[in-house]
Write a structure and sequence with these properties.
It is a multi-pass membrane protein. With 282 residues, the chain is mainly α. It has twelve helices and no strands. The relative contact order is 0.13.
C-alpha cells in the first residue's frame, strides 16, 4: 500500500487559492443574497436569509422597457465581439506575417492607445459622434451604432496585441508547407491559421463582450434623448432615488446583468481551455 505524501508548499498554495477565490466570490454572493432578501432584511448585515424572496426581481422585470434595454445591450455586445474578432485577426496576421514601412510605429501606437484614460476621451468622442451623425445618422448620437463604433475602437488595440502573440506562435514552416501543397494564402489564413488561433479568439471575445456589456459611461453620454436605445446598465438608474435607494432592485438588476456574461463564458470556456491545451501540446 502506497501512502500519498502531500508537499507543504502545495498545501499552502491550495489554501491561498481557496482564500483568494472566497474573497473574489464574496461580492457576487452578497449581491445575489441582497437581491433575494425580503424588503425588511435588505439593510441587515446578516450573511444569510431564511425567507428568500423574488420581489426585487419582479420589480426589476416590470420596469418599462427593461426587455428592450436587454436586447440593446446584447446587440451592441455581440456586434462588437464579431467585428473586433474579424478586424483584430486580420490586423494581427498583417502585422505578424508581413513586413512593411511603419509597422513598428503602428504597433507602438496600438500600445499607446491602451494607455489613454477613457474619461479623457469621452468629451472629444461626444463631439466626434455628433459630427459623424451628420454624415451617417445610424452612427450618430442617440443611436446604438455610436456605441458599437466606440467600443470597437477601444477593443481593437488590445485584441490586436493579444491575437498577434497567437499568430506569431504558429510556425512559418507551416505556411510554407501549405504553399507546397498548393494552398493559397487566403486558404491558409482561414482554414489553417484561423482554427489554430482559436484560443486567442475566444479569450478576446470574452473580454470584448464584458467591456461592451458592462459599459455605462458611453451609453449615458451618447444616448441622450432616445430612451428606446438605452442599454441595460442605464436601467439600474431607475432604482436610485433621492429619498431612498432600492438596494434590493439594484442588486437584482445587477444579478440579471451578470447572467449573460456567465452564460457567454460557459459557452466558450470549453473551446478556450481545450484550444489552449492543444496549443501547449503542439
Amino acid at each position: 500500500m502506497t501512502t500519498l505524501v502531500r508537499k507543504p508548499g502545495r498545501t499552502l498554495a491550495e489554501i491561498v487559492t481557496v482564500l483568494v477565490a472566497a474573497v473574489v466570490a464574496f461580492p457576487l454572493y452578497w449581491m445575489v443574497l441582497t437581491a433575494l432578501k425580503p424588503p425588511g432584511e435588505v439593510q441587515s448585515a446578516a450573511p444569510w436569509t431564511f425567507a428568500p424572496s423574488l420581489d426585487s426581481f419582479q420589480r426589476v422585470l416590470t420596469v418599462s422597457g427593461f426587455g428592450r434595454y436587454f436586447l440593446n445591450s446584447l446587440a451592441v455586445a455581440l456586434v462588437v465581439v464579431a467585428l473586433s474578432l474579424l478586424f483584430a485577426f486580420l490586423a494581427a496576421v498583417a502585422l505578424t506575417r508581413f513586413r512593411f514601412r511603419g509597422r513598428t510605429v503602428l504597433l507602438v501606437m496600438l500600445l499607446v492607445a491602451q494607455m489613454v484614460p477613457v474619461e479623457a476621451l469621452t468629451i472629444p468622442l461626444f463631439f466626434l459622434m455628433r459630427s459623424v451623425g451628420q454624415v451617417a445618422p445610424a452612427f450618430g448620437l442617440n443611436e446604438l451604432g455610436s456605441l458599437v463604433l466606440v467600443h470597437l475602437a477601444f477593443s481593437l488595440p488590445f485584441a490586436i496585441w493579444m491575437l498577434r502573440g497567437f499568430v506569431a506562435a504558429v510556425p512559418a514552416e507551416l505556411e510554407e508547407a501549405a504553399k507546397v501543397d498548393g494552398a493559397s494564402r487566403f486558404r491558409f489564413v482561414w482554414q489553417i491559421l484561423f482554427p489554430l488561433v482559436a484560443p486567442g479568439l475566444v479569450a478576446t471575445s470574452v473580454l470584448s463582450f464584458i467591456h461592451a456589456w458592462n459599459d455605462f459611461l458611453f451609453a449615458k453620454t451618447f444616448i441622450i434623448s432616445r430612451s428606446e436605445n438605452q442599454t441595460l446598465p442605464q436601467a439600474i438608474l431607475v432604482f436610485f432615488k433621492p429619498e431612498e435607494n432600492d438596494w434590493g432592485a439594484i442588486m437584482a438588476s445587477s444579478t440579471l446583468m451578470t447572467v449573460p456574461v456567465l452564460v457567454f463564458f460557459v459557452l466558450v470556456q470549453r473551446r478556450l481551455v481545450g484550444g489552449m491545451a492543444g496549443a501547449v501540446k503542439g
